[in-house]
């Protein structure tokens, strides 16, 4: 998959949710994980992160939205149930993204929502667990940006396999033929 992505949460207070969210981020191939304004005891991976993700992806802990230091070009995608949020199944994921989820029994702060380039919502009847919401969003990104056959219109798997990716030969900027390459 091209691009990179990070997963984080603002204002988390439960160790189990942090561990589960970190494990999902690791499983779906996140490049780093972050917390913003988390409880002090949540600044490292808890035992519920059975994949031991900090050994595989960096963990950043920022005190506030203002101190977040994301890579240039990284778009912040808030996951929040707001009236103007885009439904997740209709959302086009940015190649460089930092997905941020809100706290348990709360919402993303006004400062975080202002920092977001996009806000998406999972079309559910009510709020779901933060770790579960994170896993759903990461699956959707993986499905949307991964190289998979088109979804079947009928029950069952796709009828056509995705062709293998083929890299092209060397490209000459001068227009000269590179030895071993047909023009």
UniProtKB/TrEMBL annotation:
InterPro entries from the UniProt entry: Alpha/beta_knot_MTases, rRNA_Methyltransferase, SpoU_MeTrfase, tRNA_m1G_MTases_N
Transcription regulation in keyword set: no
CDD domains per the UniProt record, alphabetical: SpoU-like (cd18098)
Example GO molecular function: methyltransferase activity
Region feature Disordered, mapped onto this chain: 159-183
Any one Gene Ontology BP term: methylation
UniProt keyword terms in alphabetical order: Methyltransferase, Transferase
The tRNA/rRNA methyltransferase SpoU type domain, residue ranges: 7-139
Gene3D superfamilies noted in UniProt: 3.40.1280.10
Protein name: RNA methyltransferase
UniProt organism field: Roseibium polysiphoniae
């Amino acid at each position: 998959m091209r691009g990179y992505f990070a997963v984080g949460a603002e204002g988390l207070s439960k160790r189990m949710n942090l561990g589960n969210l970190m494990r999902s981020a690791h499983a779906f191939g996140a490049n780093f994980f972050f917390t913003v304004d988390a409880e002090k005891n949540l600044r490292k991976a808890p035992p519920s992160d059975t994949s031991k993700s900090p050994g595989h992806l960096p963990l950043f802990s920022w005190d506030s939205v203002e101190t977040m230091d994301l890579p240039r070009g990284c778009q912040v995608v808030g996951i929040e149930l707001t009236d103007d949020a885009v439904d997740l199944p209709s959302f086009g994921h940015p190649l460089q993204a930092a997905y941020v989820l809100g706290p348990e029994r709360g919402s993303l702060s006004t400062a975080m929502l202002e920092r977001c380039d996009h806000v998406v919502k999972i079309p559910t009847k009510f709020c779901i667990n933060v770790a579960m919401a994170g896993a759903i969003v990461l699956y959707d990104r993986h499905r949307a940006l991964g190289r998979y056959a088109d979804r079947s219109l009928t029950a069952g798997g796709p009828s056509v396999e995705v062709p293998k990716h083929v890299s092209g030969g060397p490209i000459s900027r001068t227009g000269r033929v590179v030895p071993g390459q047909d023009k």
